[in-house]
NADH-ubiquinone oxidoreductase chain 4
Amino acid sequence: MLDYIKYIKLIMLLLLLLLTPLMGVFIISTSISYDLSYLNIKRIKFTALTTSVINLIISFIIFILFDFSSKQFQFVQEYHEVSYFDFYLGVDGLSIYFVLLTTIITPISLLSNWNSINKEIRCFVIIILLLETLLLAVFLVLDILLFYIFFESILPPLFILIGLYGSKNRVRASFYLFLYTLLGSLFLLLSLLTMSSIMGNTDYDALYKNNFKFLTQLLLFYGVFIAFAVKTPTIFLNTWLLKAHVESPLAGSIVLAAIVLKLSLYGIMRIILPLLPKASLNYTYLVYLIGVITIIYASFSTLRTIDVKELIAYSSVSHAAVYLLSVFSNVIQGIEGSILLGLAHGFVSSGLFICAGGVLYDRSSTRLITFFRGLTQIMPLFSILFFILCLGNCGVPLTLNFLGEFLSLYGVFERSPILGVFASSSIIFSAAYTIYMFNRIAFAGSYSRFFSFNISDLNKREFFILLTLVLFTVVLGIYPAPVLDGLHYSVTSLIYSTPNII
């Protein structure tokens, strides 16, 4: 009897992971008075934060109970004939880390705008909790049509978040985000409907047992890759990201950089590599060419920008192009490196956005590098944590970013040494623009003459948020075994070996 109860508890964990934020939304929407006094606003925020922390604890329980010696889906839950399809939930060695990343970043995004959002607080926290549920659903569903539904369902909350709480050009940015990604995903929908029509099934396990004809794989690859290229984003398709990052509120920038940009990486590993292996091998060099051009273009664009938030957004495009290259390397080290780099970028970019938007902008109302100088003299704690995050963004050894970039570039070299050399330029460029930014802000002489009063150093909330992200970056950089050991079995199944591709 006890074993049966334990089995029921284990099998319900994934459903609980999805329902917990929705329960928080329900409590905030119904149980809290509409009197928006200081105490009620504080209660709304603490309810949302408590909900996200509970979800974080649930995800850690799943991680502890997860069997990493198997590449099968675990904690599988099946709900038959929900609407017109069956609802399947499950987690494997690939998705478990993206689930953890989502549950870690959500409370951080709530805390980042703890004091800076002063209007429509209830709406703000509800949007963040809804985004957490929808993003978790993308990583947990075991059906390609459900994957597409949740993949697209994050757009309305992001559209409202940027449109309501963004900067002066927020409406334009929210429409860019919505229309760009929606248009790209139409090609994904057509490809997934074609797969469903051929197979008569949309379940991952059933699709993985099929081997599509080579010509069919090529046609399907076009549609799927266009959608993921927009979401990554690659060159000529990255206009929406820059506008969305710059105009978005801080929580929106964190969610965009840390989680939304990883949806394309996850989708490639879940759909393209296992379902379209021959097409992906044939088009690797085209993907590599696009990725290398993206790295060089984004890096040069980053070097010339003077807006701190825009600089971090451009650097995100460059790092995303690196893990896009490595995930197509068909090498174990390369695919594992792409996941490591994706996780590392999630921690470091979140920290840098908090430094730019949550610390500097909130205190000075400007993001231009030219206005800052000599902040080390009055903000020593901020300067230390900012420096460590900048080192992570450069890929310095003893950070998780270094391991991710090293393994990623190793995989790229294995596949194409010439393009690997060009891709490696991202190391030089990232060091150039990141250290340039840090040097201008933290040093460059005495405290800036543009400010008539001193800026206060980090408060407790900001310090512990940044310290958490720094610890994840450094500890996993020194001891990455918890991630790498769990990836081996699942990544091995993505490697496709064929002597001749026809």
